[in-house]
Amino acid sequence: MAQTVFIDGEAGTTGLQIRQRLADRSDLVVVSIDPARRKDADARAELLNGVDAVVLCLPDDAAREAVSLVQSGRVRIVDASTAHRTASGWVYGFAEMDPGQRAAIAASTRVSNPGCYPTGFIGLVRPLVAAGLIPQDFPLTMNAISGYSGGGKGLIEEFEARTAPQGTNDAFRIYGLNLAHKHLPEMQRHAGLTHCPVFAPSVGRYAQGMIVEVPLQLWALPGKPAPEDLHATLQAAYAGERFVEVASETECAEMQMRRAGAGGYVQDMDPEALNGTNRMKLFVFGAADGSQVRLVALLDNLGKGASGAAVQNLNLMLGLAEDAGL
Question: Is 57 noted as a catalytic residue in this protein?
């Protein structure tokens, strides 16, 4: 018998993509609230408590309110907002993060879906911290670019409108200049760090896709590891994973050696390359003398960074094939 799912906030960017990923499933039925009763608190509470699982695609305060309405102990919740990513009693929904994370997600009724930027950062950094290659108190920097869909409805409208005053012709824009981005607490907590990294996010003129980068001065690390040490550690951490892949040393070296020829510019990495998937690919680019590396994560901010991860978590929580719909 098919299990029921309510996507609270299904009209938003993440909600729409989750619904699309579930559309052809025979093991799940997506139920929706009657549009005429959408603002009826009793009707919403009845639906939240009457399904097998709820996916919250809401602003933080609205997500907290929705959780408070769930009185049934059997309803499983995946929260795609920032509200519960460091909250007690919630399991962090990055299945590949640790060997026991899948089991923790499967056993929980409360799972917080990771943010898109943190997925890349934690994916790169946590295994290296756990292995002792990066000290917990080491000062880290994270540079990243995302498609404008990551900024929600307002930013989407701004970039797609183009004309002033509502639109913009910006090709590239940095933001988060107050150094207090809402993703920082989860990055620090789940990467196993003592301090928050310096986070330098940016947005480009394309809809979706993301590159996350962590540059490291290897000579400044206590053990002075070689780029090969970091690569081997990441490969071991994600060996056998379907959705997280570490590029081989050969592939990374070939990308480093590419040069523009007679035909012009050579594109080394396309932020849109994994769009529409639940995949994330990690790269280690080392300097020739071994003194520096650039750790890079490539993912879809609306895939592994949002809707794909939510479906993966939903599958685990409901005892379904983890890759169903993905």
Answer: no
